[in-house]
Write a structure and sequence with these properties.
Elements lengths: L1 E4 L3 H7 L8 E4 H22 L4 H8 L3 H9 L6 H11 L4 H34 L11 E2 L2 E4 L2 E7 L6 E7 L6
Antiparallel strand pairs: 1-2, 3-4, 4-5, 5-6
Length: about 180
């Protein structure tokens, strides 16, 4: 699935698209990734404004320095708890968690759209699937099913005592 992004000059320049009326096709994954990068850049700016290095901020959040770095680069999905802790330490309002919640809502919407598209594709394939053949009925004599391939009887399994079908294949068709 793709959406048109009409006024994002940075995305246009990254992808080499020119002209104001051109639409850049962005997948849901690309959109969420870019939103995470923007959130990470905001965290980095706020961290620097507060006078913290990544190495100083990390132990205060209870996360590793690499997690702070990854979050600032938008590399990985980081839990909401991380963003709440950063807000509290940096003494900023709910900006980070607000953006995090927006990202999660967009990601959930894309996942739901992908599920709907996959279901529609399955239903479309099922609509053209050939119908199942009617079950074949074969004549029985005293509970024994005779078929051109052999004789089928139901017997009790000596190990588990459940009924099982026993197929006896005939070497030559009966005359």
């Amino acid at each position: 699935m793709t959406i048109g992004v009409e006024n994002d000059d940075r995305l246009r320049s990254e992808r080499g698209v020119r002209g104001q009326r051109d639409a850049v096709k962005v997948t849901g994954v690309d959109q969420v990734r870019e939103m995470r990068r923007v959130l990470g850049r905001e965290l980095a700016a706020r961290r620097r404004e507060a006078g913290f290095s990544q190495r100083q901020l990390a132990p205060l959040t209870g996360y590793a320095r690499s997690t702070v770095s990854d979050a600032e680069l938008g590399r990985h999905h980081v839990r909401r708890d991380f963003w709440e802790r950063c807000q509290r330490i940096l003494r900023i309002g709910g900006e980070l968690t607000g953006r995090y919640d927006q990202i999660e809502a967009v990601a959930a919407a894309w996942r739901a759209a992908m599920v709907r598209a996959a279901q529609a594709a399955r239903e479309e394939r099922a609509a053209v699937w050939p119908a199942a053949p009617a079950p074949m009925t074969l004549p029985t004599e005293n509970g024994v099913l005779r078929s051109p391939a052999g004789v089928v009887t139901v017997q009790t399994c000596p190990a588990c005592r459940h009924p099982v079908a026993v197929i006896t294949v005939l070497a030559a068709p009966p005359r």
